[in-house]
Amino acid sequence: MRKHRLLPLCALLGVLFAGLLPKLDAQGQEAQESADLVLLIDGSENVGAANFPRVRDLAMKVIEGLDVGRDTIRVAVALYSMDLEVKFFLNSYDTKAAVLDAVKALQFTGGNEANLGAALEKVTGILLNPTSGGRAEEGVPQALVVISAGPSNDDFSAGDRALKAASIITFGVVVGGMATAELETIASDKSFVLSAPDFRAVASMGDQLLPYVNSVAQRTIVIQNEFTEGR
């Protein structure tokens, strides 16, 4: 049976609040500047057409603060409601400008259900695999940010297990707090779930989220797998 634990959380806090980064040689520095990032956005009526531009602005703000590129941080975006709607894959665009243009063009599609569980299973099976531009086999860390405005309408336990089995570092942004408990379960650590009281505050969450995502690319946040014998 494989277990995982997050390392090093204390070191992460040092990076966030003291600005301390480990010294690296040239080879190590090059290896630390890459990640595969999926933004999984609630596209259901939990958000609604009127509030969707605010959520889109959060995605824009995060991407603007990242070193996006073919060999650095690759970005994929998908909306989930009744079904998962992939907007673009990790290998769809090679430049930050192209990714930002694609996010800017996102439109609200709506849906009465928010099936987060089914969406999470497809993150590992579709969005982060090598065919879609995933680089886990090359040792590139993979991260997921779930932006949710309401509880899931389906069981997310299988999707959660798939994320953890694949060592995907998962973060959450909750609007309104109704989905806080389930995102704390899905996230790699409870401290990786950020909460916005309402949609007016959503875009401002980008400043809080960016240090976490950049720390994944810099290998400051790491998941270590532990292997134990199963029964």
Automatic annotation (TrEMBL):
Pfam families: VWA. It is found in: Secreted, Extracellular space, Extracellular matrix. GO terms for cellular component: collagen trimer; extracellular space. It comes from the Eukaryota. Residues 1-26 form the signal peptide. Its main location: secreted. Keywords: Cell adhesion, Collagen, Extracellular matrix, Repeat, Secreted, Signal. Residues 36-209 form the VWFA domain. This is VWFA domain-containing protein.
